[in-house]
Amino acid sequence: MENSKKNYSLVTSNSKCTYYNLFYIFLFSSVIGVIVETIWCILITHTISSRTGLVIGYFNPIYGIGALLMTFIYMKFKDKNIFIIFIICMILGGGFEFLCSLIQEKIFGTVSWYYDADSLGILGKRTSIIYCILWGILGIIWIKKLYKIIEKYIEKIPKKIGKTFAFLFTIFLVFDITLSSLAVYRQKERRHNIPADNKIRIFLDNNYNDEKLSNIYPNMTIKQ
To answer: What is the value of pTM for the model shown?
Structure first.
């Protein structure tokens, strides 16, 4: 009887880490992150500007991937004390931010955030001590509280509808991420005077020129 209970508990725990659950964690966090950052921008700068990470819709995959990172930390370290969780999330969160900035600059020749001396910028100013601390605090909140709340909401979604939506929206997100990457990469090509010599480049120039991209990504600056 004890063995059967242990097996059931193990299956239940593992079933939470499925594509279905991870998809909705990614989606919710991608949207909520944009909303929170938009509100933060209004409070700090008293202006409203785009905080999306994609050219279609109000999503930012950075927040979604960050939430998935926190979820994997939850799976491994949820029973650890708060200090250990804080240190792990602080290091991995800051490292993730650094890596995203580095990849963006190397591929697209742009950066979307830069931390000056006031923010105690480190690692080439791609992350900062202050934001690493915030990553640590956010990790504690996510692991000890938020994850369980979001998980409950995911469980309330009718499974048949939820799985169909997840499948269809995954296709859309792949398209959106691909289109967004191509649009920003084409911007880099225009800076290097590469002509629009095929249908894809012509389409990108006509629909995602520099002016439109500057409205979608107002914080994105050119590095090279």
So the answer is: 0.82
